[in-house]
Specification:
Layout (H helix, E strand, L loop, with lengths): L1 H27 L10 H10 L1 H4 L2 E13 L5 H7 L8 H7 L1 H8 L3 E5 L2 E4 L20 H6 L1 E11 L7 E3 L5 E3 L5 E27 L2 E12 L7 E2 L18 E2 L3 E9 L5 E3 L4 E3 L8
Parallel strand pairs: 9-10
Antiparallel strand pairs: 1-4, 1-7, 2-4, 3-4, 5-7, 6-7, 7-8, 8-11, 11-12, 11-13
Helix pairs in contact: 5-6
């Protein structure tokens, strides 16, 4: 009987030890890591997200009117600056640098319909009816006392291109110069650059969400080459208004997007995208 009891006690002790070893081994066994999708899938997810697809666009006027301001001496000053008979390239660049750059790149056309007027005369001058001995009828005096209003009509070289989107709105009146009054009529929002994924660096699970860290850069559209600099050290400059010109750097930026599964099995961006670059500019 004593021997039987000893055997049972030994078996019981052995069972307890085995169970303890099994529990410890289960605790130490590493959990199997969840496989992340291929980076090609991550690149597709980032590229197709609405936050990433939003490009950079600028306002391009349909019409620009360049007229003298009201006030004493304004006509003379206008005639000596913006009111010459031929609209010089530097004048157009000062009024709308974006339009001038696009004209240089042959992606839009600018047609000018100037109207000549005379100032500092008692009555309208009819050059064919004034006496030849009148001072006002002499060509030198007429040209010296004349200015030209300029009415510009702007048209895309290819209006069917998807980069041009009609932009309604009110006229923009600019009286920032001392001699001229510039009125810009809204025309288009022109898409000048889109984002391009350079590489997917890291993909990892955060619970049920998939975090994707990537690098991207600005790529010009078919009409945006003048506004994307090849200098990777350049700093982005976004146009504040129609009289300003944008400049985007082609340098690589870093970004992160977090995706979650949707009920239909697709993916959706979770929360607000986070992105940084050397200049600390926020970009998706």
């Amino acid at each position: 009987m004593r021997v039987r009891r000893g055997i049972l006690a030994l078996l019981a002790g052995t069972t307890i030890v085995a169970l303890a070893v099994l529990i410890v081994s289960l605790r130490k066994a590493p959990a199997a890591e969840r496989a992340v999708p291929p980076k090609s899938v991550g690149k597709t997810l980032v590229s197709s997200s609405s936050a990433f697809r939003e490009g950079m666009s600028i306002g391009i006027p349909r019409e620009i009117a360049i007229e003298p301001r009201f006030g004493k001496g304004a006509a003379e000053a206008f005639a000596a600056s913006l009111g010459r008979d031929v609209l010089a390239a530097d004048v157009l660049r000062s009024v709308s640098p974006a339009v001038a750059s696009m004209q240089d790149a042959l992606v839009l056309r600018v047609n000018d319909s100037p109207i000549s007027e005379q100032y500092n005369s008692d009555a309208p001058v009819d050059m064919g009816m004034r006496a030849n001995n009148s001072l006002l009828s002499t060509p030198g005096y007429q040209r010296a006392r004349r200015y030209w209003r300029h009415y510009l009509r702007i048209e895309p070289a290819d209006p069917s291109a998807q980069e041009w989107r009609t932009a309604p709105g009110d006229n923009e009146v600019d009286e920032s110069t001392t001699s001229a009054r510039v009125v810009r009529t809204p025309g288009w929002q022109a898409m000048i650059a889109r984002r391009e994924v350079v590489a997917v660096d890291v993909m990892r699970w955060e619970g049920e969400a998939l975090s994707i860290s990537y690098r991207w850069r600005w790529v010009p559209t078919i009409i945006g080459a003048p506004f994307v600099s090849a200098d990777t050290a350049a700093t982005d400059h976004v146009a504040a208004n129609s009289a300003d010109v944008p400049l985007l750097s082609s340098s690589e930026r870093r970004g992160t997007l977090v995706f979650v599964k949707t009920e239909d099995g697709g993916w959706a961006v979770r929360g607000t995208p986070v992105a940084t670059n050397a200049t600390a500019a926020q970009n998706p």
